[in-house]
Write a structure and sequence with these properties.
alpha/beta, Nitrilase/N-carbamoyl-D-aminoacid amidohydrolase, seven-stranded mixed sheet, six-stranded mixed sheet, 27% helix, binds 2-oxoglutaric acid, Nit1/2_C-N_Hydrolase, omega-amidase activity
Length: 278
Amino acid sequence: MASKVFKIALAQMAVGKNKVDNIAKAVKMIGDAKKNGSSLVVLPECFNSPYGTKFFKEYAEEVPGGPTSEALSKAAKDNCLFVVGGSIPERSDGRLYNTCTVWDPQGCLVASHRKVHLFDIDIPGGITFKESDVLSPGNKLTIVDVGPCKVGIGICYDVRFQEMAAIYRSQGVDLVLYPGAFNMKTGPLHWELLLRARAVDNQVFVAGVCGSRDTSADYVAWGHTMLVDPWGKVLVQAEDQETILYADVDLKSCADIREQIPVSKQRRNDLYEVKSKI
Ligand SMILES: O=C(O)CCC(=O)C(=O)O
């Protein structure tokens, strides 16, 4: 993948309780993405397990080495494309993490991102969720080369933190990927708004990839997977059902808007600054 234009596939997958079926579905969607000409496919957050603190321990695996890592590595290699493996519960040194793995077309693990900002919220009458009851946070930001494109990774709640996306942009990222699992309370008002805000603020492409909606699940996902361009325009957006979205990412449009609206050169670093501490 050398071209500055490439086709991305966003897999809004239906995730169920059967882990083997979930992995098989992900592998099938990766194959479909390849057949449709994509060189990069992105899966949703927590795609091998239902999303919920009571499930993470049971579904957790080592990264790499566990069956989900093995399957993603093989699927990336068999189809000769990059795979951003949404996230899975990871077990490491007696702790659990919410972890995204990135696989290159040779099937090698080229990055893994542990969710940095854990999803702990409490909205009376809405939703209460506390990932930190069972998960530990990651302690690094993750940038990975996907062919000609520098990609920054965040997982779901990470999208609420503009500082993280700003640091990605300052380190040359053109595309930020957020595997997610927004819900029926915050999804309607915040999901698209946050993804578009990250895109406009940072003049980058942004994709949010959610699981499809299952109204019988304990946690009902919002869906509405989408790709936003650096202008903040939604290029493709799903509704709530299982589907794969395809779109061309043309990196020239990042360069164009940065020249036309040169906010990064106009920033008043004498008055304020966002900087990485790692
Ligand atoms: O930020 C939100 O409203 C939802 C976040 C979430 O679902 C997650 O982090 O998994």
